[in-house]
Amino acid sequence: MRKVVITGIGLVTPFGCDVRQFWQKNVAGASGIRRVKQFDISPFPSQIGGEVTDYNVDLFMDKKKQRRSDPYCQYAVAAAKLALKDSGLDLSKIDPYRGGVIVGSGIGGLQSFQTQHKILLDKGPGRCSPFTIPELICNMASGLIAIDFQIKGPNYAVVSACATATHAIGDALRIIQRGDADIMVSGGADASICSLGYAGFCALRALSTRNDEPEKASRPFDADRDGFVMSEGAGILILEEYESARKRGANIYCELCGYGATCDAFHETAPSADGSGAAKAMELAIKDSSENPESVDYINAHGTSTELNDKCETMAVKTALGEAKARKVMISSTKSMIGHLLGAAGAVEAAVCALSIKHGVVPPTINYTTPDPACDLDYVPNTAREKKVRLALSNSLGFGGHNATLAFRAI
Predict the structure, then answer these.
(1) Burial of 400 by CB count in 10 Å (0-12 exposed, 13-18 middle, 19+ buried)?
(2) Where are the alpha helices (DSSP H) in 205-362?
(3) CA distance 170 to 408
(4) Sequential DSSP letters for 149-217
(5) First-to-last CA distance in the chain?
(6) CA neighbours closer than 13 Å in the CB half-sphere of residue 391
(7) What are the pLDDT digits (tens) for 296-332?
(8) Distance CA 411, CA 403 (A)
(9) What top-level class would CATH report for the domain 4-247?
């Protein structure tokens, strides 16, 4: 089976669009959570979020395309262009049918849906944009990236809520492994910071209402957690077949060596109470990597800062690794710093794993102050840890019971 490596990372997040800056803030344990400014947030129980910063869409997309695309697509295109630049790839030198794109979205063009629905109600159907449907659909980010890059191989979107990007990257791994492509552009994007998005998640009582302390609101595994923090953005990885990447002298972050996917088949929004589905996804990813549980150094947890998720994921780690190993492994949640990017989260957190391996540093779980007896593992509380990481896992768990895990190995 062919070996697959990560050679490019592109991010659009509450920590900006520069990978170095993103990593520095992760290591520093900074927070990107603030009071929401994009719309009047005052009527909502949750008034905080992780809005994208240091981002200029004009650098990535012309005005005409901007008018025809939802912000989630704009974020995806920007992250893809940043990832391509980071990889140093010259796409003109590859067979366009040997490259592909799998970029998903958990919700798709929610802002465009809200805007066009208002136009429909206020002005009638004749005033809706002819690009309404292309703006809404979840596959359009993959399509736009392919158009810009002129990549003509496998191209589709994955939609599996908060597991979206992890599934997308896992599928891209398989495509290269079986020889159907040599290069894949993969990840996820979401832009759900709008009134409809907040109305829906607030109705679920899923969001933190720690409005007076935004930076301290996302507190995975802490006993005082009260919900997740909504964020937006995109994460894109460039995946390449190892030998071709090595021959061109690519900067290789790490190997993407394993993938596991399961379903709880339990509930629309709640995870399986014993964490068995998430545990099985981790077990499958470890097996796929030809490693064993003892080899795992670091887990980037889904770690949403919700009561059930954090408890169940802790149980899942114990089941997958065994109690003794679970207590030795380093676990941290990127969401403690930048919130939950929904369908983009898995790609951003995959990037964190790759950067941890590359730099020998595990970022912290910030805002961890009050231990929860049900969450009793090493969550790298509040301070980054310098530590060589050889094998890392990234977990993503989505509404609908979707579980996905990626495994990364040092080269």
Answers:
(1) middle
(2) 242-247, 276-288, 307-321, 323-326, 335-338, 345-359
(3) 11
(4) HT--SSEE----GGGHHHHHHHHHHHHHHTTS-SEEEEEEEE---SHHHHHHHHHTT-B---TT-GGGT
(5) 16
(6) 19
(7) 999 999 999 999 999 999 999 999 999 999 999 999 9
(8) 26
(9) alpha beta
Selected catalytic residue, list 73, 138, 162, 194: 162
Q: Which CATH architecture has domain 258-409?
A: 3-Layer(aba) Sandwich (3.40)
The token pair that represents 214 in the structure block = 């935004």
Q: Is 302 a catalytic residue?
A: yes
**What was the pLDDT predicted at 113?**
97
pTM: 0.98
User: Is residue 340 annotated as part of the catalytic site, yes or no?
Assistant: yes
CA distance 187 to 104: 7
For residues 381 and 136, give the distance between their C-alpha atoms in angstroms, rounded to a whole number. Answer: 39
Q: What are 235's strand-pairing partners?
A: 11, 188
In this predicted structure, the answer to whether residue 273 has a pLDDT above a threshold of 90 is: no
Which residue ranges does the chain devote to CATH 3.40.47.10? 4-247, 258-409
Q: Which of 167, 302, 375, 402 is catalytic?
A: 302
Please answer whether residues 26 and 358 qualify as being in contact, where contact means their C-beta atoms are separated by less than 8 angstroms: no
Q: For residue range 333-346, list pLDDT tens digits in order.
A: 999 999 999 999 99
Question: What pLDDT, on the 0 to 100 scale, is given for residue 337?
Answer: 98
Banded pLDDT at 278 (limits 50, 70, 90): very high
Q: What pLDDT shows up at residue 1?
A: 86
Q: Any idea what the Cα angle at residue 9 is, between residues 6 and 11, rounded to 5°?
A: 150
In this prediction, residue 241 carries a pLDDT of: 98
Which position among 340, 353, 375, 402 bears the catalytic label?
340
pLDDT above 90 covers a percentage of the chain that reads 99
What is the Cα 284 distance to its own chain's centre? Answer: 20
263 annotated active-site: no
**φ/ψ (deg, to 5) at 210:** -80, 65
Tokens coding 178? 């079986």
Cα separation of 373 and 204, whole Å? 26
